[in-house]
C-alpha cells in the first residue's frame, strides 16, 4: 500500500496571536514495504506528521493519500483508515485499560468485527512478535513491568495487522536490552508482513541500524530525504543543524576534517570496521 503526503501544511492557532506553522509544504512518497526513519530536533513537526498519517489530525492544506486516495475524501470512513494505518504513540503503555493483557491486545481486532478464532490468532501472533509469553496474557496489564506494558501496548496495534505502521519513539526510556528486543521484534514483523513502517526516534543509532531511508525535518520542512547512505553522506550538514549523529559517524566526520577519511556515510560499527580496514590498506600502499 502506498502512502504519500502531497503539499501538506499544518497551522495551529489560525487567526489568533498564537498562530504557529507546524508543517509547511511537505511532499513525500514513503517507500512501500520499507522502513523509514523520521528524525528532527524538538519542535520540528515529527509528532504532528505522525498524527496526520492515520487521520487523527486534519491538514490545513494538502492531502494525505492512501493508495492514491485522499483519506479525508470520506471522513465517515476514517475508522477503516485507522485500521490500515496503525499508530503507536510515545509511551503507549499509558493507554492500557482492559482487565487482562489478552483482552487489551484483542480490543482492536474485535472492533474490526473479526471472528473469535481470528482474534485469538492475531493476539497470539502479535504477542509473539513483541516477546510476550503466553503466561503473561492472562495477567492484568497493570501488574506488568514498564517494559512488558510497552510490549503489550505495541502488540495491541500489531494485532490489527496494519498495512502501514507508524511508531513514535517506540523504545523511549528503555534500557539497551529492552530497546533491542522491542525494535528487533518490530523489524521481524515488518519483514514477515512486508508492511510499510515509519519510526520516529531521537536515537540516530537506532535509525541507522534499522531504517532503509531517512526523512529529516527541520522547522516544519523537509531538510533531507533519501536512503540512509545518502543522508549520512551529508553528516556534517546534519551536525551543523544540531542533529545528533551515531557515535561512529561523528568519528568519521572528525577523521575527514583531519584528512584521514574521505567519507562520512559510515553509520554502523560493522561498516566502520570495513571502511577503516580499507583506509589502512590504501595508506599502506602509499608508503
Describe the protein in words.
The chain has 287 residues and is α/β, with parallel strands linked by helices. The chain has eleven helices and ten strands. The strands form two sheets. Strands 6-7-8-3-9-10 form a six-stranded mixed beta sheet, sandwiched between helices. The chain has a four-stranded antiparallel beta sheet with strand order 2-1-4-5, covered by helices on one side. β9 and β10 form a beta hairpin. α3 crosses α4 and α4 packs across α5.
Mean pLDDT, all residues: 90
The number of strands is 10
Q: Widest sheet: strand order?
A: 6-7-8-3-9-10
Helix fraction, binned, reads: 40-55%
Shape summary: globular
Question: How would a textbook summarize the main sheet?
Answer: 6 strands, mixed
* Cα-atom radius of gyration: 21 Å
Low-confidence stretches: none
Give the terminus-to-terminus CA distance: 54 Å
Q: What pattern of helices and strands is seen along the backbone?
A: EEEHEEHEHHHEHEHEEHHHH
The helix count comes to 11
How much of the sequence lies in strands comes to: 15-25%
Structural class: alpha/beta
